[in-house]
Amino acid sequence: MSDPAPTRRLYIKTHGCQMNVYDSERMADLLSPLGYAMTERPEDADLVVLNTCHIREKATEKVYSELGYLKQMKLARQAAGQSMTIAVAGCVAQAEGKEIMHRQPAVDLVIGPQAYHQLPELIARAHRAKGERLSADFAADAKFDRLGAVRNPSGVTAFLTIQEGCDKFCTFCVVPYTRGAEFSRPVEAILAEARSLADQGVREVTLLGQNVNAYSGEGGLAGLARRLAKIEGLDRIRYTTSHPADMDDALIAAHGEVEALMPYLHLPVQAGSDRILRAMNRAHTADSYLRLVEKIRSQRPDIAMAGDFIVGFPGERDSDFEATLQLVREVGYAGAFSFKYSRRPGTPAAALPGQVADEVKDARLARLNALLDEQQTAFNESQAGRTLPVLFERAGRHPGQLSGRSPYLQAVHVSGPDHLIGQIVPVRIDSAAKMSLAGSLALEFA
Ligand code: 5AD
Ligand code: SF4
């Protein structure tokens, strides 16, 4: 997680009616979790918001003349090694839109009254455009930040970070603020690290990134997977976590063609109601997600799908939640992570009306989990009787037992000799439970 936020100064100049006064207060509230405290002096401000009014004829011209003064202050601050972000809000922003930025390039962002809840996102984006990082004071919450997980001590499987940060700005999520913009490591550095892992006996790598399939190194994630697959000894490639919007055709095709790319895909959907998906700023609909899954399955029919879900997002009604259950039924998941919506100050959703009562969230989560558990068990049971290649990672809990993973990331337990650790071996699946499979070695190993 990022360092505690340094205090930044915010100056808001409010013109016009009572509505604008109210909006200015709301904007100050929205920005305070990002470390902004009010100042009375614009020349001291890291962020200036001009909340404008359109009611009188000369109002627009007045805005431009004020912006002229602010530009001078911005230049003075820049000369002193400081910065100033200038935002124009209110009715002039609404009426003139981006035109303002053309006429006065010192303006960093323009935001109409309908979009104030997006202010944290827009401020973070403006900072990024200037190459600055907005370090927000978000409390660490490891639950939603699964990256940086412990390395597997067995040495047979390893995590390899290829990408960091996120540009998606889902309205519930702190990651774009805490981790900053999407950044991809160069292909060669990744290949070198992967070769060295393979030399040390690693057979499986899991490529990590907050938005791993937005990997923008040469050839994208599909190209990277194809090159990694050629590394001697590296037999299995996985990646997590992906965003539906970045699941491109090349990557989908790779799932059908690259044997080392394991048939397991963690593709969070979060919700099944388009109204909620829009409020989450997810950039996909339930239907576009379903079509995507269909397309992936046309290349790799046996792929095990996993997802992330949030219940009780602000404004979620029973009918929205039913749409989530319906989507889950249509996809059929092999695994999932489900969460109750948790309000993170500083994120746009924290300021939305219609926060859902905790008892309602609990009840929805229980219903969703019951369905997901049922699907996970059914998926596991569908493997019974099959013979699957299992990569043995470690000794099992009982003497003489080995523990490994199927291509679908299921834990598999068998009786067998230790020297099979690090090998991929055919295992006949005898029985299945919710969390694991039990099997026996399909071949004789002395
Ligand atoms: N509340 C609940 N769940 C969240 N996640 C991220 N932020 C929140 C939040 N504020 C979940 C999403 C994401 C996963 C890593 O954590 O489902 O995909
Ligand atoms: Fe957060 Fe993932 Fe959305 Fe990025 S894509 S904002 S990391 S939930």
UniProtKB/TrEMBL annotation:
<comment type="similarity">
    <text>Belongs to the methylthiotransferase family. MiaB subfamily.</text>
</comment>
<dbReference type="InterPro" id="IPR023404">
    <property type="entry name" value="rSAM_horseshoe"/>
</dbReference>
<dbReference type="Pfam" id="PF01938">
    <property type="entry name" value="TRAM"/>
</dbReference>
<dbReference type="InterPro" id="IPR002792">
    <property type="entry name" value="TRAM_dom"/>
</dbReference>
<feature type="binding site">
    <location>
        <position position="17"/>
    </location>
    <ligand>
        <name>[4Fe-4S] cluster 1</name>
    </ligand>
</feature>
<keyword id="KW-0963">Cytoplasm</keyword>
<feature type="domain" description="MTTase N-terminal">
    <location>
        <begin position="8"/>
        <end position="128"/>
    </location>
</feature>
<dbReference type="GO" id="GO:0046872">
    <property type="term" value="F:metal ion binding"/>
</dbReference>
<dbReference type="GO" id="GO:0035597">
    <property type="term" value="F:tRNA-2-methylthio-N(6)-dimethylallyladenosine(37) synthase activity"/>
</dbReference>
<dbReference type="Pfam" id="PF04055">
    <property type="entry name" value="Radical_SAM"/>
</dbReference>
<comment type="function">
    <text>Catalyzes the methylthiolation of N6-(dimethylallyl)adenosine (i(6)A), leading to the formation of 2-methylthio-N6-(dimethylallyl)adenosine (ms(2)i(6)A) at position 37 in tRNAs that read codons beginning with uridine.</text>
</comment>
<dbReference type="InterPro" id="IPR005839">
    <property type="entry name" value="Methylthiotransferase"/>
</dbReference>
<keyword id="KW-0408">Iron</keyword>
<feature type="binding site">
    <location>
        <position position="91"/>
    </location>
    <ligand>
        <name>[4Fe-4S] cluster 1</name>
    </ligand>
</feature>
<dbReference type="Pfam" id="PF00919">
    <property type="entry name" value="UPF0004"/>
</dbReference>
<dbReference type="InterPro" id="IPR007197">
    <property type="entry name" value="rSAM"/>
</dbReference>
<keyword id="KW-0808">Transferase</keyword>
<feature type="binding site">
    <location>
        <position position="53"/>
    </location>
    <ligand>
        <name>[4Fe-4S] cluster 1</name>
    </ligand>
</feature>
<comment type="subunit">
    <text>Monomer.</text>
</comment>
<protein>
    <recommendedName>
        <fullName>tRNA-2-methylthio-N(6)-dimethylallyladenosine synthase</fullName>
        <ecNumber>2.8.4.3</ecNumber>
    </recommendedName>
</protein>
<feature type="binding site">
    <location>
        <position position="170"/>
    </location>
    <ligand>
        <name>[4Fe-4S] cluster 2</name>
    </ligand>
</feature>
<keyword id="KW-0949">S-adenosyl-L-methionine</keyword>
<keyword id="KW-0411">Iron-sulfur</keyword>
<dbReference type="InterPro" id="IPR038135">
    <property type="entry name" value="Methylthiotransferase_N_sf"/>
</dbReference>
<feature type="binding site">
    <location>
        <position position="173"/>
    </location>
    <ligand>
        <name>[4Fe-4S] cluster 2</name>
    </ligand>
</feature>
<dbReference type="InterPro" id="IPR058240">
    <property type="entry name" value="rSAM_sf"/>
</dbReference>
<dbReference type="GO" id="GO:0051539">
    <property type="term" value="F:4 iron, 4 sulfur cluster binding"/>
</dbReference>
<dbReference type="InterPro" id="IPR020612">
    <property type="entry name" value="Methylthiotransferase_CS"/>
</dbReference>
<dbReference type="InterPro" id="IPR006463">
    <property type="entry name" value="MiaB_methiolase"/>
</dbReference>
<keyword id="KW-0004">4Fe-4S</keyword>
<feature type="domain" description="TRAM">
    <location>
        <begin position="381"/>
        <end position="443"/>
    </location>
</feature>
<feature type="binding site">
    <location>
        <position position="166"/>
    </location>
    <ligand>
        <name>[4Fe-4S] cluster 2</name>
    </ligand>
</feature>
<keyword id="KW-0479">Metal-binding</keyword>
<dbReference type="GO" id="GO:0005829">
    <property type="term" value="C:cytosol"/>
</dbReference>
<dbReference type="InterPro" id="IPR006638">
    <property type="entry name" value="Elp3/MiaA/NifB-like_rSAM"/>
</dbReference>
<feature type="domain" description="Radical SAM core">
    <location>
        <begin position="152"/>
        <end position="378"/>
    </location>
</feature>
<keyword id="KW-0819">tRNA processing</keyword>
<dbReference type="InterPro" id="IPR013848">
    <property type="entry name" value="Methylthiotransferase_N"/>
</dbReference>
